[in-house]
Amino acid sequence: MMRVHGGRVYEYAEAHDAAWSEIADFSANINPLGPPPAVLRAVTGSLGQIRHYPDARHQAVKRVLSQRFGVEPERIVCGNGATEALALLLEALRPQRLMVLTPAFQGYEATARHLHIPVLKVPLWQDGGVAFSQLTLVQSLQCGDAVIVNNPHNPTGYAFTARELAELAEVLQERGVHLIVDESFMDFLPDQERWSVLPLTRKIASLSVLRSATKMYAIPGLRFGFAVCAADLAAQIERVRDGWSVNQLAQVAAVAAYQGVGFDEQTWTWLKEETSWLYTTWGRHSLIELQPPHANFFLVQIKQGGLARKLLRHLEQQRVYLRGMAGFELLDDTFLRVAIQTRGQNERLWRAVEGFVAATAQAKE
Ligand SMILES: Cc1ncc(COP(=O)(O)O)c(C=O)c1O
Fold first, then answer.
1. Best substitution site from 26, 108, 215, 338 to test ligand 1's pocket, by max atoms within 8 Å of Cβ?
2. Whose CA is nearest to atom 15 of ligand 1?
3. Which of 215, 238, 224 is nearest to 76 (CA)?
C-alpha cells in the first residue's frame, strides 16, 4: 500500500489507475459547500486579467481583510496559501529554532528545513490528555526561538481557547520567543472570539497569526492565505518578497470570499449538523474512538490490531481516499483522519466503514 499524504488526489488517482474525478477524497479538509458561488463568479469574470501581472501589493484584498478582521492593512502579509505566509514569516524572523508541537501538519517541518531552521519537536500531550504543558514548553525554549501552534489543531481536531494561547503569548514574549498561531481552520468556528488570538496581534508584537482561504472557501487549487503580524515585521517581509506569488485570480477569489455574505453561516450550520451526526455513528461504535472535532475533520482510532490499516486498503479499492496517521508523532497506523463532507458522502463512507469493521471483527471471532 502506498503511503499517502492528504490532498494529493492526482497522485492517488494515478497510483490507483483511476481518474481524479472518481476519487471520493476524505483526505483533504476542504469545505464541501464551496467554493462559494460568488467566488466562482468573481474568478470566471476576471479571467481576462491573467494577461497582466498580478497586483504585487495585494491592495484590494488587504482592504477587504482589513475590514473583515479589523486589522490595519500594514499588518497583513498575503501568501500563496498559508504555507507561503509561514515561509515568509520564518524567513524574516530567522528564529534560532522552530518548536513544533507534534503531531503537526507536516508543512511546518518542511518549511523550516527548507530555510535551514532547526526544528525542535515537543509532544502536544503527555499522559493521554490533549493539551500542552506550558511548563514543558517554556522550559525547552531560549530567547530567539519561535513556536508554532495550530488552532484548531490538525490532525487531532482539538481547539485551544484564546485565553490559553494569550497566556502563552505573554509568557513567550517575556522570554524573547515569537509565537505563530496557525488559524488555518478558524473560519469553521462560529464563535471565533472564544478561540482566536488574531485581535491580540495588535498588542503583542511577538505574536503572529496565519489564516488560510483554501479550506473554508475551498480554493486549494487556487491558493490564498495570509499572516497578521506586527507592522514592522510585515514591512520587512514586503520589502524583499516576490509579490507576484499571489496570482491575480487568487486575489480576486479572496476578495469575493472574505467580503461574501451568508456562506460562513451556511457552513457553520452544515458543520454543526454533521458533527452531531458523527457522534451518533462513529462516536457510538465500540471499536472506534472519536476525538471530539472542532473543525471540518475528525481523528479516530480503531484500536483492534491492524484493522485501521486493512480498512484503508479496503477503502482504497473503492476509490475512497482517507488519511492514515502512520508516521505522525504520537499517532500510529491505528489512527485515521477524515474530512467531514456532505451528508450523502458521510453516510456512504460510514456504511463502508461499519460494514467492513463488522465483517472483519466477526471473522476474527
Ligand atoms: C494546519 C494547516 N496549516 C496550513 C495548511 C496549508 O494551508 P494552505 O493551503 O493555505 O497553504 C494546512 C494544509 O493542510 C494545514 O493543515
1. 215
2. 105
3. 238
User: Using CA atoms, how far apart are residues 211 and 297, in angstroms rounded to an integer?
Assistant: 17
Which of 311, 304, 310 shows the shortest CA–CA distance to 353?
Answer: 311
Going from the Cα of 181 to the center of ligand 1, the distance in angstroms, rounded, reads: 12
Distance from residue 30's CA to the centre of ligand 1 (Å) = 10
For residue range 232-291, what is the model confidence (pLDDT) as tens digits? 999 999 999 999 999 999 999 999 999 999 999 999 999 999 999 999 999 999 999 999
pLDDT tens digits for 315-358? 988 888 899 999 898 899 999 999 999 999 999 999 999 999 88
Task: Find the 15 Cα to ligand 1 centroid distance in Å.
Answer: 24
The pTM assigned to this predicted structure is 0.94
Which domains are delineated in the chain?
9-35+263-364 (3.90.1150.10), 37-259 (3.40.640.10)
Q: Which residue has 453516510 as its cell numbers? A: 347
Half-sphere exposure of 164 (CA within 13 A, CB side): 15
Nearest atom in ligand 1 to 225's CA: 10
What stretches of the chain adopt beta strand conformation (E)? 24-25, 76-79, 98-102, 119-123, 146-150, 178-182, 207-212, 225-228, 288-290, 297-302, 320-321, 323-324, 335-339
Cis peptide before 155 (omega within 30 of 0): yes
Contact 141/100 with Cβ under 8 angstroms? no
Distance 83 CA to ligand 1 centre (A): 6
Report whether 217 contacts 82 (CB < 8 A): no
Q: What is the pLDDT of residue 2?
A: 34
Q: How far is the CA of 106 from the centre of ligand 1 (A)?
A: 9
Q: Do residues 234 and 78 lie in contact, with contact meaning Cβ atoms separated by under 8 Å?
A: no
